[in-house]
Amino acid sequence: MTLHKEGYPTVGLALIFSVILIGIAWYFFPQSNVAKCTAYTISFFVLVIVLQFFRNPSRNWTKNENALICPADGKVVVIEETLETEFFQDKRIQVSIFMSPTNVHINRYPLSGIVKYAKHHAGKYLVAWHPKSSTENERTTV
């Protein structure tokens, strides 16, 4: 298993935080095993959470031209017909997948093909369950 390249800065910050936290425990509480153990425990959990969030496990895909692979880990929360106004300008089927913090946060292409349109949209960082998050958050349309 590898880490996604976008996660390296966050992993670095988590490591720096851990070193500082453990250093504070050792410097200010040299006789307290409780403080040191607490610092180690907090550091461990922070690192585990960050590493599991940015993990990029290898996947074994079936080499089938007709296969449609789920683009993301998570839970399918909506399958509905919606009006697509950016490229197709007509009705399409929307599949929304909610990724919890324990899911792998990587989106993959669900099928092979040729990319004819791609556009980055700067935007907000609303929580995923916000009704307007799919239209107002930063995103890329492919």
Q: Helicity, in percent?
A: 25-40%
- Taking all residues together, what is the mean pLDDT? 90
User: How much of the polypeptide forms β-strand, as a percent range?
Assistant: 15-25%
Kindly name the structural category.
Answer: alpha+beta
Beta strands, count: 6
Radius of gyration, in angstroms, nearest whole number: 21 Å
Explain this structure.
The structure is a single chain. The chain is an alpha+beta fold. The protein has 3 helices and 6 strands, in the order βααββββαβ. It has helices spanning 8-28, 33-53, 133-136; strands at residues 2-3, 55-56, 75-84, 90-98, 119-121, 139-141. The strands form 3 sheets. Strands 1-2 form a two-stranded antiparallel ribbon. A two-stranded antiparallel sheet has the order 3-4. A two-stranded antiparallel ribbon has the order 5-6. A hairpin with a 5-residue loop joins strand 3 and strand 4. The radius of gyration is 21 Å and the shape is elongated.
